[in-house]
Amino acid sequence: MPATIRDVAKASGVHISTVSRTFSAPHLVNVETRTRVQACAEQLGYRPNRAARALITGRTFNIGLIVADIANPFFPPLIKAAESQARRHDHHIFVADTNEDAVVEEDLVRALAKQVDGVLLCSPRMSNSLIEQLSREVPLVVVNRQVGGIPAVVMDVAHGARLALEHLTGLGHSSIALVTGPRGSWTSREIRRSAQTVARTGSFELTVIGPNQPTEDGGLAVAEQVRRGGMTAVLAYNDLMAIGLMEGLHSLGLRVPEDVSVVGIDDITLSRLTRPKLTTVATPTAAAGRAAVDMLLAHGDDRRTTAQVNLRTELVIRDSTGPAARRQSPGPQRHADPGDVVATAP
Amino acid sequence: MPATIRDVAKASGVHISTVSRTFSAPHLVNVETRTRVQACAEQLGYRPNRAARALITGRTFNIGLIVADIANPFFPPLIKAAESQARRHDHHIFVADTNEDAVVEEDLVRALAKQVDGVLLCSPRMSNSLIEQLSREVPLVVVNRQVGGIPAVVMDVAHGARLALEHLTGLGHSSIALVTGPRGSWTSREIRRSAQTVARTGSFELTVIGPNQPTEDGGLAVAEQVRRGGMTAVLAYNDLMAIGLMEGLHSLGLRVPEDVSVVGIDDITLSRLTRPKLTTVATPTAAAGRAAVDMLLAHGDDRRTTAQVNLRTELVIRDSTGPAARRQSPGPQRHADPGDVVATAP
DNA sequence: GACATCACTGCAACCCCTTGCATTAATTGT
DNA sequence: ACAATTAATGCAAGGGGTTGCAGTGATGTC
């Protein structure tokens, strides 16, 4: 039904190649012809078929962006940043949501493959080998993951976790729970690895709880375990879980931070609105989105560019952490009076 | 670099049409040949090029979904519902974000046009005529908008606004502000139209403030105007604005609901976490997502299906509304003790 | 044993567009 | 005035697939 290049050619009495050039290389066609062709095209409502064009040129000017859960406030800033960076290079971003499902994830990469110039795989849940295989089908940049020689943007959550734990031990906590994320999450493994390393110093006892759903419900679900285990502090895989956990603790009659201190990771905007405000490890999500787009686009021009971008995280101390209970400390200590106290990573 | 159908044909010694059938109509090819072809394909890492296939078949099994702001928690439930409904029909959803920009919106529809079987246009900001024009380039379903004969899914926010205002007048408010949304928003116009109709009964005075950015900042920005105007109640275009407004009022020293009552629209999850919890008009976002996908897919099979789906909204009374100030009422009245009181629309 | 039927497979046109090359006409240089 | 450019356009071969039609051999029917 929509007009094709042939219709326009017929209407304006020129060969289709002339119509084609009118749109993709206007300087090659005489100004008179060009205006006539444009007029016909306009009147017929003709638009070049981008899919057909891409079939030949190999460029779509689209970028796919796959996230584990679009409802997680962690992602929007990343997506927005990627979008504006992409727009700067005349590209569009298509977002797809995997629902934390590795199978859906694979499916989506394949669905996007030939419709985009490359895919940004954010916090993927699938296996390394599958990622490597897919990277042979479509240019890939992974975010929050390290796999083989694939371009990656990672955040040093390991360091963030260390900062968080040191903050907690500094407050006198000696029994700390680590609430991990979903199976397949590289970030979760990194955090765990880092936490176990820190724990090996012997300054506190670490209890690992997981894997869990990385949502508020997931956090809420472990509240009971934390209570039973008698831990006085918790580091959660992300803010959403930390917030859910705080709710759960509250409904169990435990106060935060008087009875239990809670630290999240991500620093989503919501973490500033909870009561108490959440202490958390801030991750540079916008920077990650920009960097990922840049890597993908650069990777097209010259091969072998920077294979990995590392971004630093920092600890944002708010009100959900305080001195360990059962100590002679004079009650909850409040940080971050008007603004936030930020301990920058080295 | 990736293998094409020709490579597989050569490797397995058959014609490309046989390879094609092996993947798109396996029952038409002999089981021996088929397995041989599949083996070759597997070994070469061949995947049918979906873009090329779509060029002929006209079907991509993808659906585009365009939203005004992916960071607005209003959208994720809609997106998720659309996704699961789409998956049920073997389709994938690609989401694009317009940043509340009508020009970007148009651009994105065109970018998606030939990569998808249709586009769900959620809360569009562009003009009716442009929407009609675009609908000739790609099948369209609009959500939260009525335009010409284009399939639409709308929510009766007009009724919701009426419920909210009646709730407020019932509490004795006689000076109410309506904080509208962005220019170009059909929903905002509907709310305004409805509010003005209700106001014409003379039971209260309505002050319209807007247009505004439909974000927390947008809400925060009008707090001062509300204070100066002396309104005792506000109906905001959406929850995000209502929440921003509450913050703004708080920092101006006004209490909610004692000094000012606030009602939002959407019932995003966040509205249950604020303090006080937000009274709001709940919109059936998930149902809208499902309905939109259904309409798009049905529209393909037989023409002239239901041209419009209307969804009902309801008022959820929480803690951000109370009796009007400067009355002899005995202080803030609390509704919704453990659960929420829901006043269903007729 | 002649003929219709059937299961496979190949052929070639086509989807919509781009692009290297050839062709033609107009312009420039000397 | 004639060769050499240059500008504008047409031609046709793709890009990676699908699909109606025809051809092949084998099987079934009576």
List keywords for this structure.
13 helices; disordered C terminus; six-stranded parallel β-sheet; DNA-binding; seven-stranded mixed β-sheet; homodimer; 13 strands; 346 residues
Report on this structure.
The structure is a homodimer of 346-residue chains. Chain A has helices at 5-12, 16-24, 31-44, 50-57, 75-88, 102-113, 128-134, 157-170, 186-199, 216-221, 223-229, 239-251, 285-301, and strands spanning 62-67, 92-97, 119-122, 140-143, 152-155, 175-179, 205-209, 233-236, 261-266, 279-282, 308-311, 314-317, 341-343. In chain A, the strands form 2 sheets. A 7-stranded mixed beta sheet of chain A has the order 7-6-8-9-10-12-13, sandwiched between helices. In chain A, strands 2-1-3-4-5-11 form a 6-stranded parallel beta sheet, with helices on both faces. In chain A, α5 links the parallel β1 (62-67) and β2. Mean pLDDT of chain A is 92; it is low at 327-346. Chain A contains 13 helices and 13 strands. By secondary structure, chain A is of the alpha/beta class. In chain A, 41% of the residues lie in helices and 17% in strands. The first copy, chain A, binds a DNA duplex (30 and 30 nucleotides) through α2 and α4.
In short:
Chain A has helices at 5-12, 16-24, 31-44, 50-57, 75-88, 102-113, 128-134, 157-170, 186-199, 216-221, 223-229, 239-251, 285-301, and strands at residues 62-67, 92-97, 119-122, 140-143, 152-155, 175-179, 205-209, 233-236, 261-266, 279-282, 308-311, 314-317, 341-343.
Instruction: Report the β-strand fraction of chain A as a percent range.
Output: 15-25%
Oligomer: homodimer
Which descriptor suits the 3D outline of chain A? elongated
Largest protein interface, residues of each chain: A-B, 45 and 45 residues
Q: Uncertain regions of chain A: pLDDT < 50 for 5+ in a row?
A: 327-346
Mean pLDDT value of chain A: 92
Which structural category fits the helices and strands of chain A?
A: alpha/beta
Largest sheet of chain A: 7 strands, mixed
* SSE order of chain A: HHHHEHEHEHEEHEHEHHEHEEHEEE
Q: What integer value in Å does the Rg of chain A equal?
A: 26 Å
Spatial sequence of strands, sheet with the most strands of chain A: 7-6-8-9-10-12-13
How many helical stretches of chain A?
13
Terminal Cα span of chain A: 61 Å
